[in-house]
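Task 17 of the worksheet. Students: predict the tertiary structure of the chain below and write it out as structure tokens. Keep your answer in the requested format; marks are given for formatting as well as content.
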Amino acid sequence: MKKLLLITLAFCWLNSFSQIFLSTDGILYQGDNDYIVLDFPEKDAKTLYKNALFYINETYKSPKDVIRGDVDAQYLSFSTYKEVKLFVKTIDVIMMGADDSGYIKYNTNLYFKDGRVKLSFSELEIWRKNPNFRYPLNTQKGVYSIYKKGDLRNPRVKRRIESAISSTYYKLIIAFEQNGSFDGDDW
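Model answer:
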């Protein structure tokens, strides 16, 4: 139980120092790269791959439906859907009775080598509760846009989306450091 509490506290602390940033070019990391390399010197590619599969199986209700690509111990890609608050509640939004939540979808791409994982996020889409209205990150369409003509339009929503993607990033780091179990209890 103590280990789980420490991991949770570490996750919350790390989440406040996000390394993931949104731009009009997509999802970037510190240093303007479109990927990040994670080092796990004591782990081989097969172990890192198995830990990622374990994470997917423990996290998603239907793991087979979210996996988009899988090459044994070399590559793994999966989709993530998360609900986020897309709009700041203003008097106009409240008067219209509009819901301020929406969804984001993005792919997590993992490439495995002994002691290292190359991680990237791609194909970010944003939409309200109606899935017929999906927009890419740099859309210029109305209230769904974070950027308009290259300028940041809604910094709060940008931070919320960065935080949602960062949570996947930190959960994967914890998964890669595990030895096959996430509950922390030795049963």
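Marker's comment: The chain has one domain: 2-177. Residues 8-17 have pLDDT under 50 and may be disordered.
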